[in-house]
Every structure is written in structure tokens, then in C-alpha cells.
């Protein structure tokens, strides 16, 4: 069995192993929540390893159902480590994968055969004939027959001892999309739009993404003797809540696991964040009413009842499970004023501090009046998309603003866009000639490759160079637009990013060094970083880890004694209202100006390569999010602004 989770299993501060006191459970499947995906994966790998060893001792085969996608990668990595370092053998292991795109050649870049070999099979001693993956090459009229024989084959090994699952944002398990029946078998499935959009990253765009897949059915999955579902990151939070707390429904196929006698959800805190026990822990158990919990509860009550904070009554608190809060702090009146004031004090038009003002209750220090600010931007456009209004204000208010562009972002430039630029340079050089034959060669090679590039091909170094240059030009253009000198734009080109593939290398020493170098050079009073703590695999998280490590290493330097780190949310989500420590408002004009700044990133407009499941353009996402933050403040009873950017401080 999986060992005790390393995070508290409820919100009252109880440690693992301590007894659960009359907590009401909303989840209908046992759920273990871990601080992060790594800890969680270690526990899952441990269970799998124990099962393999147990079967070995009994001289039996261990039959595993396996999944692909980003979720199980960390589990596979841990199994490989155990094979290498702890002698875990896979000689008695037989595996059946859940699914495969259709049609799909096994040696294609995106095939699940290739995925499994790269992430597990090639690194352990599983015998060649012991792993099975649905065949993406069977003719269409033979798929039904193939499905039956796949299931027969599983049965011939005695059925699945253990099934590992991920979960789609739409609730799919395997590729059993919403609408799949509980008694469905292995079959051909039409992929949901959201599934294809999520996979489009790997295929270089939606148009090139397969429309179908062969998947094990729901009944095939439910027949496994043990099922463990993994989910990481806040992107999965809503569907995790629906699958665990909602009714069993075909619109969320993962909810069928509620009918399984031995299923377990292993999730990280971010994926758990919408669960009742985390969102409104006071409805589940006794909680410790510290200031953060009070802010969380009061803002929740205000939003739920649609009443401004200052209008909440004792009855509102009592009726909504917060009578013990009142008992502890007194009247609603006092509580409301306290929380209202705290919210009010987060709002400032002076993100670099207001000179000559009393700063005891302001988010930032007044001194030094003119600060050096270093904004880290994971991709070349995150600075303007996520904190463009604040970026502009910092510059306008006389601070010395620098930007550290962490990666080249080259992978997100479309081929035809790159070809357009390469052609431009080639034509120009041919007409006027330039001194550098090397430059001519780079652009010529890039253009020639792009003209004949196949979908499954990786970009050459020359193409990646051209694509990176396009994005660099766009970032410089934004800096000019805001008004900072181009010398203050630092292009770090962190090496972990430069694989030419969606899949990146792990963070390395060189990455940390380039981040440390720019901090040492700028000696900032403020660092702004994209605080995407929730996405365990994304570029933003790796970029953030590099900043955290660099800051930790530099924290004893003199200049760091006066440096504050502010985190903005880089992806599409905003900080929770109770977490926000600085909210910078924007007027309608300032919001429009930010939009124009985002427009400088022309390669990211009009159908970007990595759209994801959100079809809005970046400026739309940014505006909607900033307006929503302002709307929320207003709903809580604070002044009505057009839009707001929000920050949380990181104390290192
Ligand atoms: C993969 C599979 C899918 C994924 C799901 C989540 O074999 O069957 O159900 O598990 O789409 O994908 P990730 O883990 O990439 O979020």
C-alpha cells in the first residue's frame, strides 16, 4: 500500500498518522494529497515496486496497466531509479497500455510506443515481448476485432493487478471521453476537442493532431484489482473535485471510479485545491483561525452570499459554519472591518513604493525612492501579458527597470512565420550582399529546411535560431514601447529550454548560474517572478525554481539585504483573493496601453502554435483576468477599478 502522505490530510494542522477527528468526508474515493508531484510519485512507485517484488516472491507475473501523458512520468522516473539503484527487476512484469492515437506509426515522434520506451521500457529489464500497446496501425475495419483480442490477452495473463491512470481536464480516463458508458470496452474513440487541444502541443498545432484513438474501455479499467489515479497542478483541480465529490456520471468518466472497491486518487495540493476540505475546511473539521484562514473564510462568505464584506452579519457567519470564528474573535462588525482594511491596504498605484509617504501599511517600502527592479519573464511575452500595467508604472514612476528574458521561446513560433523572416533576410542579402557568409548560410539553411519540413520533424539549429531571433525582436519592441532602454533587456537563453521539443531538460547548474549572473549585475531592490507553483512540468515552474535557487544562494550578499521578491501569476489563473499582498490598479487607458504592448508579440497573435485548450488570444486572456480581479475587489465592497494586476511576496 502507498505510504502515508507527507502533507497534512486536513486543514486543521493535523500531521499524517494523527487520528482524524470526526471530519466530514466529501470525497467518495480515498484520496492522498501530497505537497508536490515528486513526493506523490515516489509513494506510487513504491506501491508498484512492492507489488512487483511480492509477485516475484510468489513466482508470479505482475500485470500492470500503464498510462502515458505528463502525469505518470515522475512515477516512471522513480521506478527507473529503483531499478538502477535498488535492484528492482521487471523480468516478471507484463504491461498493457491504456491507449494509442489512431492512426499512429509506432516509431512516430508522438506515438505512445515511443513514449513508453523513452520513459520506461528502454531503461529497465522488462523482456521485449512483455509489453503491449494498442496498435495504431490496424486497418479501420479490424479495430473492433483488435479491441477484443487486446482484452482477451489481458485476461490470458489473469487480468490487471494494478492500473495506473491520469485524468483529462474533461474527466476522461484512458481516452474514454465524456459520454463513455460504464460498460464500454476497448474501442476506437473520437477525441474530444479539449483533449486534442491539450495534445496539440506535442503535434505542433491542432490541425496536425489526430482525431481518434484506440482506448481500453471503462469496464476494462474497472476490472483491474487496484486502480491509482494521478493528477498534478491546479489545471486539474475542478475535474478532481467533480470526480471525487460529484455524482457518478458519464459526463465525468473518472467518476466511475467511485464504483471501484480498491481505487485511490494520489494528487498534489494544487490539484486538490478545489476540494471542499481545502476550499472551505471549516465545513469539514475544526480549523485553526489564523489570519490567512480568516481572510479566506470572510472573502469566501462575502462572495458566496454576494454581499460586500462590510455588510456580513453575525447570522451570516453562524448560518455558514463559522460560529466558532465569531466565538473566537467577537462580532461580525469587528471581523468585517479588520478584513476589509487588510484588503484595502493591498491596493496601491505605487508598486515600487510611494516616495515621501508613510509606508507602514503599504505593500512596498517608500525607500529607496528610485529602485532597481528586475522582472523575470519565462517566455519573451510574460512580462507584458502578466504584469504589463505594473511594468509601465514602475518605469513611469522613475525606477530603473530591467527584464530578464529566461528562455528564447523559439518553439512557439510557427514555421511559416519563421520562413517569412528567413526569406526576407535571404532576399535582402542576395540583393545587397553582406559581409558574413555565415549569416547568409544560417538563413538560407533555415529557409530551405522550412520549405520542405515534415510534421514529425524537429527544427534544425538554424531554424530555432531564426525563431528565437523573432521573439527576441518582439521583446525588444515591447521594452521600447514601455520606454526602457534595450540594454536593460537581458536575454538569458536558459539551456534547459533548448531541446527543440516540447519536452525540456531538467534544470541544470548552468541555468541557475545565468539567473544568478543577471541578479548580481542588476543588484535589484525588487525582483518580479512568474509564480506558477502549480504546474509541475511547465517551463514557468522550471524558470521559477531557477530563481528561487539563485536567490537562496545569493541571499547573504549585501545587495540582497534590501531586495524583495514579488510573484505574479504567469499562466491564466490569478492568485486567490485572500493571498494577494499587492494589487496594482489600471485605468481603462492603461489597460488599452497594455494591450498595445502585448500586440508587439506578433508571432503570438492570430492562431499561435501552442494554443492549449483556451482559444482566446493572449491580450484577451490578460484583460479578462485583470478585469476579473478588479471585479472581485469591487464585489467585496472595495472601490471599482477597471482592472488590476496582483502579486504575492516571497520571503526568502
Ligand atoms: C494517457 C491517457 C490519458 C491521460 C490524460 C491526462 O495514456 O490515457 O487519459 O492520462 O489525458 O494527461 P496528462 O497526464 O498529460 O495531463
From TrEMBL:
EC numbers for this chain: 3.5.99.6
Domain annotation Glucosamine/galactosamine-6-phosphate isomerase: ranges: 36-260
Keywords in alphabetical order: Hydrolase
Keyword set includes Hydrolase: yes
Any one biological process term the GO annotation gives: N-acetylglucosamine catabolic process
Gene Ontology MF annotations: glucosamine-6-phosphate deaminase activity
Protein name: Glucosamine-6-phosphate deaminase
Source organism of this protein record: Larkinella terrae
